[in-house]
């Protein structure tokens, strides 16, 4: 399956990344010589995505100017949110506006950064998505392999790839990697105007239609300035064999 549309969630305030995000949207922070936003757009373009919706709120003019300066690549639709709609509400608004079409689409967090394994992670998601069984397919990473504080993880996965939430006092083996492939039906009868993706994930878990794919490359949790510094150091070491 070739996925033609995607949404980049870029409207958040990035408060844990302050002071770096005091005057800059988090997706415009640089890593490895490019912004997080450009890394994500490049990866989406590489697997055939033709239209990307980018929602904006915090420092929206800077985000829109950056997008306008890009040359070539997928068409970009800016969805400005005067009031934050949260992750689920933002995606539903894009669906209702007709920007994402009627086929499955990618959703990528604006601060998601990963290095692919033998095959691009987005291509693996597209190849693994089964509309008969899935409303959502999440990319997850092994909790123990993350070089940052991700708490006790997010999910466990059964042999069929279906996920369940972490139980109380349990260390879950997988953490959400900020990348997912969704069917529009996931948002049927979605709650309210502004809501978290967690609300629709939980409904999909209840009907066994939420599944996960384990990432086979590197993934970087980017929540704080220290996380960004650590990621930059690891990238530099991987390219040169030298620490900074």
Write up this protein.
This protein has helices at 36-46, 60-69, 86-96, 121-128, 197-206, 225-240, and strands spanning 5-9, 30-31, 34-35, 51-56, 75-80, 105-109, 113-115, 136-142, 155-157, 163-165, 174-182, 210-214, 218-220. By secondary structure, the chain is α/β, with parallel strands linked by helices. It has one domain: Alpha-Beta Complex (Spore Coat Polysaccharide Biosynthesis Protein SpsA, Chain A), CATH 3.90.550. Helix 3 crosses helix 5. The longest helix is centred in the C-terminal third of the chain and has 16 residues, at 225-240. The chain starts with a strand and ends with a helix. 41% of the residues are buried.
Q: In percent terms, what proportion of residues is strand?
A: 15-25%
Task: Give a short account of the largest sheet.
Answer: 7 strands, mixed
Q: Could you give me the name of the CATH homologous superfamily?
A: Spore Coat Polysaccharide Biosynthesis Protein SpsA, Chain A
What structural class should be given to the helix and strand makeup? Answer: alpha/beta
**What order do the helices and strands follow?**
EEEHEHEHEEHEEEEHEEH
**CATH top level?**
Alpha Beta
What order do the strands of the largest sheet run in, or round the barrel if closed? 5-4-1-6-11-8-12
Gyration radius (Cα, Å) is 17 Å
Determine the number of helices (DSSP H or I, runs of at least 4 residues): 6
Which bin fits the share of residues in helices?
25-40%
Instruction: Report the end-to-end length measured between terminal Cα atoms.
Output: 42 Å
Q: Total strand count, please?
A: 13
Q: Rough shape? A: globular
Overall pLDDT, averaged? 92
Count of the separate structural domains: 1
Tell me what the CATH architecture is: Alpha-Beta Complex
CATH topology: the name is Spore Coat Polysaccharide Biosynthesis Protein SpsA, Chain A
Low-confidence stretches are none
């Amino acid at each position: 399956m070739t996925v033609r549309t995607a949404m980049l969630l870029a409207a958040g305030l990035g408060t844990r990344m302050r002071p770096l995000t005091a005057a800059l949207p988090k997706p415009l922070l640089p890593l490895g010589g490019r912004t997080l936003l450009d890394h994500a757009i490049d990866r989406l373009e590489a697997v055939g995505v033709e239209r990307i919706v980018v929602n904006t709120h915090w420092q929206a003019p800077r985000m829109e100017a950056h997008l306008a300066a890009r040359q070539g690549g997928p068409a970009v639709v800016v969805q400005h949110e005067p009031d934050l709609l949260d992750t689920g509400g933002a995606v539903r608004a894009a669906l209702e506006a007709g920007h994402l079409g009627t086929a499955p689409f990618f959703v990528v967090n604006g601060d998601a950064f990963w290095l692919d394994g033998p095959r691009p992670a987005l291509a693996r998601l597209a190849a693994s998505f089964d509309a008969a069984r899935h409303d959502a397919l999440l990319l997850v990473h092994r909790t123990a392999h993350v070089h940052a504080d991700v708490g006790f993880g997010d999910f466990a996965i059964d042999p069929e790839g279906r996920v369940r939430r972490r139980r109380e006092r349990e260390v879950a083996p997988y953490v959400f990697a900020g990348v997912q492939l969704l069917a529009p039906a996931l948002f049927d009868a979605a709650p309210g105007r502004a809501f978290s993706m967690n609300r629709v994930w939980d409904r999909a878990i209840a009907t066994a239609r939420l599944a996960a794919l384990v990432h086979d490359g590197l993934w970087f949790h980017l929540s704080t300035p220290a996380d960004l510094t650590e990621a930059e150091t690891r990238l530099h070491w991987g390219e040169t064999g030298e620490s900074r």
